[in-house]
Queue: 3 jobs
Job 1
Amino acid sequence: MPDSTGLPGYARPFETLGVAAAAAWRRSDAAARWRFCLRMTVAAVLAFAVSHVLNIPLQGLWAVLTALVVTQISVGESLRATTEYVVGTIAGAVYAGAIGVLVPHSGMLALTGLLALTVAPLALAAALSPSFRVAPFTGAIVLLLANQFGEGLLESALYRVLEVALGGATAIVVSLLLVPDRAHGLTVNAAARILDRLAFLLSELMAGLTRPMDEAEIRRIHDDVGRSIGALQTIASEARRERRAYLVAAPDPGPLSRTLLRLRHDLVIIGRAAVTPLPEALLTPLAPALARVEESAATYLRESAAALASRRSPPPIDDVTAALESYESAVAALHGDARVGTLSSSEVGRIFTLGFALVQLRQDLGDLERIVNEHARLA
């Protein structure tokens, strides 16, 4: 099941990060849910109270509904939802008000035709841009509720815009002032979880070079990581919105998201090389170097996850570099080995594939080091 950040859960969460960190993250998730509950409740009550003071029709129904709809888990997501909701409402209300005034519609048949004429272009706009998703809904409301409460078409359109603006403004104020959750923080914590999962996956894949793997389990983990990165990219887009609104001073989350995606691609390539155990002619001379690479790289990913989550400086990458150099030396020593000459081209090709993946992994871990350091400097 997804957690509060929208990331998939796992059957064995945080295998490598440790019990204390896992418990801390679970507490953080629970606290985020309670904060979201509090913000949504306060936003609805506040919108209702302001609507009552301003004597808005229907007891401020649309202001309250808007506050509920646009209050999201993070400030950045609330900004996005409010912007889209207000833009769609203005488009729907203005168009429905204008078309209702310009086109006579006395009688049920004429009103039906006008409804179709109102909804069709707004539905097309909604299909072209998510900013207009509520435009058809608003247009229909304005058209059908006009004259029902002593309001004309233009008055009805104006009320809808004002009520939605009131509800959106209320949600934003509450999101900013009442125990706010920044999308940037959610992005960093989600990235730390993914790094921990990548460390576990790397260990499993490297072990596949020496013994058969559970391919179904590996595919499941790959799929989970892929969904997690997709969810992270959504959260990162909200974090960028916060940065553009000067609500948070933090590094651009884009490089972090892209680096995690590249790390996952590195593990996909390693998985292709590890689809079956290496033949004995390769495994015997390479096993110690491979074990060192697995231990150092997985440890680096785990420690980077912990450093990112706590906004600390990244761990030293020297052990990973030394392990990869040791592996390259072991591969170079195989040249001229008579046992290698008996191997098939596909078996030898797996070593080249693995070597390419490990070179890419080293480069991407270097990018990760720089990104973790950027977050630590701004902590």
Job 2
Amino acid sequence: MLGGVVDFMIVNAPGLTQHIASGKLRALAVTAPQRQPDVPDVPTTAEAGMPEFVAGSFFGAYVRAGTPPDIVRKLNAAFNAVAAMPDVAEGFRKLGAAATQKSPEEAAAIYRRDIDRMKDVVTRAGIAQME
């Protein structure tokens, strides 16, 4: 973009905020459900008229199916405690991410929702047939 080779791109904002602030790049929208602290004046895609265009990443820890629920809960509590640490949250923020605390059920629901959404995208685009 800065070299004039491409006219449009979707990327993580942290590496570009300095160029947005200087006026070298113009941010049209953020794909997160809410405005981002590093670029608070940039609307979300929903605010820009594209309410269904929400994209992002979700990272989690996974265990083998059948892992005892008490072990899952202990691991979840430990990961959530780390995610709540201010220095960890700040490190994620610098990468354009948010360190959030989720229950195993919430994380599974996000995972299933994303899989279902991507199945639809892949199928409609003719990339592959997914069951």
Job 3
Amino acid sequence: MKPRWRLVLNGYNDAYSNMAVDEAMLESYRSGGTLPTIRIYGWDPQGISLGFFQDPDAVLYTDKCVEENLQFVRRLTGGEAIFHGDGITYSIVCSTKDLNLPRSVKESYLTICLFLINFYKSLGAQASFFSWRNKKCPGLKRSDFCFAAQQDFDIAVDGKKIGGNAQKRHREVIFQHGSIPIQMDIAKIGRYFREDLAGVEKRIMTLTDITRSPLAFSAASTMLSGSFAKTFGVDLVEEELSLLELSNAAGLRDNKYSTKEWNYAKKAGVVK
């Protein structure tokens, strides 16, 4: 009998709500209230998520973001800033035992990301980690913009990075999330970043680059969840968020993720 997992498909939410739901799911699982879970979702309106240790004012033109009502939010996880526009995002909450994961953080991260490798391969792409790169891959790059940054454990297609993923652990409980761009407008995104992003599209792969035509969010969601189930041999049962999770997420949104105290905590030298 296959292990049962919960699949949450709750559509599009704003930046603050998306990060609040992720944390509410994590806390619910840690307290024993839910099955291990994979959630697949989108962002509406568009927004930016910042790595836990990033300073918004150092990375973004925050005045322009505020002026144009573009939400930016600090994540629970590290890494670089992601512009969430036309793309698909997932989050996973489980224990190491749920997927028979190695104890090593890096090894568990690589294992979980195999479902992404398989997803890209199902679209006809030859995907691999940069650490397993071939001669097509350029030297690794640093950037405040996640999709342009390249590290050993990022995923590459034809030498270009596709998507971005990050993990947080609490003992045996693992939280991992990541985003994959369907299409990307670098000229628009570059207006909000202090870093000059001109030319970074040469280092970035999107789903449309692979499929040659825009992939609908619903189709990508079905294929992504299917790849997860097949890769790990689990039975995904679609369920809604619990009433407790919804209540906790609402509180986290209003009292944490939408506040300057949380989003500017790194700038103020505060670690929360």
